[in-house]
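Schema walkthrough. Field components (list of strings):
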Amino acid sequence: MTAFLQSTFNGLVSGAFYALLALGLAVIFGMLRVVNFAHGAFYMLGAFGAYVLLAEAGVPFWAALVVVPLALALLGMALERAFIHRLTRLDPLYNFLLTFGLTLILQDLVKLRYGVQSSPYEAPAGLRGSVDFGLFDFPTYRVFILGFAVAVCVGVWWALARTRVGMVVRAATERPELTRALGINVGRWITPVFGFGIALAGLAGVLAAPMRAVNPLMGADLIIVVFAVVVIGGLGSIFGSVAAGFGIGMVQAWAEAYLSAFPIVAQTIVFIVMAAVLLWRPAGLFGRAEAPA
Amino acid sequence: MTSTVESRSEPAGRGAPSGLVAAARAPGWARYALLVTGLAVALWLPNGLYPAVAVDILCWALFAVAVDLLLGFTGLLSFGHAAFWGVSAYVTGLVAIHLGLPFPAAVLAGALAAAVLAAPIGYLAVRRTGIYFAMVTLAFAQLVYYVANEWRSVTQGENGLQGVPRELFGLDLTDDYYFYYAILPIVLLGLAGAWRIVHSPFGRVLVGIRDNPARARALGYPVHRYKLTVFVLSGFVAGLGGGLFAVSHRFVSLEVLHWTTSGKAVIVVVLGGIGTLWGGVLGAGILVRLEDWLSFSGFEAIGLVTGGIFVVVVLLFRRGIWGTASALARRWWGRRE
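Field assembly_structure (string):
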């Protein structure tokens, strides 16, 4: 039982990263119809931002947690204005390709400056050690990540459900044509929403810095898993993306704990689940069916 | 010709003429002249470039044409074609090493394995379209990558398969110059096969599906089955390229299955021109030559250049090289008529 709870907790922590990234992808996709391949690169930049600020300017973790996502949001908004914006009227595939190109560029820029080896980043002083939950101990930092990510998801949910901007975003995500037809100016919110999605990726990156190896390729493999997560959840559904993120995190952790004789299963379970979902509900667990094609 | 992916968003029937129609409009002599020029260049290539680079260009040309069969002529962006290229490379290498078969037989085995793998992946992937298709194929290719990484007893993991022989009835093919001419017929057969697919009634249906899937379905075409068939054929062609790549490098590493390899194949197609078939061959020539030059001159950040090419082409130059050239040529002919 203890082992089960422990692996569930671990799964929720890695699910928190999937959820934050998937949430950003879903919000961006909803407003812009763009699948942002560079999302993983921004996650990596978030982690690097925290690392560089601490190593070169002595900026502590807590400040980085605010500064880095904001800076990345600005960078994202600039890229949206400069490039992505020009292609939004075309087939979404073009922006997928564009952001793929941006990913290669961002990765190599970081690689040129900092090399490919991983850089260490220590957890802030208040979050070292572990928390005693009676049945098992848990590293404080992971408890913090989980709490923080859940708080962010709930906060975003609240903003989407209760604020005027949130209503526009939600409406534009789930019924884009209808929203425009009702005379709502969707265009005004596009750039800020893109920046917001990027900020979420950057935030996930800062959170990852003390826990995972900070290196230029850390976002590359992760983004593919997150793509599988949003296919499972249904990219059109913001709730579905978050739920699938946490769900996949747990499934992966269980596979690691109980199928440790088959390490390959734990690594690939997300893709196996994706295949099953494609067979059973091609639109994703929470998605709406596309027009038949 | 507007780029083909773009034209799908336009209403049916009003879409820009596809590459097919355009090709049929060019005068016959011009097409023969192009064909003769192309063959002459193919025969001359290893005399003008390092033969090893020329060999790479041939392999990547097959890969690009395979991706364009899906992207340009069926409207499906596969971002996971490294799975077929790479699995064929491994199977070719294993067959050549352990069975000692002549390399064309090993490559054929590899390509067949790629086609077999393409069947289940395609079956699942064609359930989604557009951007989802790209994400799903990318994810399945990553699955294949992890399996190869984990299955060390067969793939040798990080070390890679070493010492893939270039066996062909005892002929000495160690020199890349002669090896180039040994694989040229296979590559030309593969390219001719792709051309044949595009210009067959089957290929016309694919273009119909690309331009208006709902109408194709209404006309009674089993859209999923057509997409699956071309996916498998495309996997086979990509597999031909990957198998030849394995034999030419005498070495197979995990890189052949990595997502950057899938991405590079897509860059090659976009650079050459989506939906032009031969544009991919041209794009392969340019990108392979460029990468060789960059790594030769000690420039390490190749991704900076390939990523930059991608950004520029997608933003400013969506027809690609071949598409732009043929649009110019068509305008010129149009004026004379």
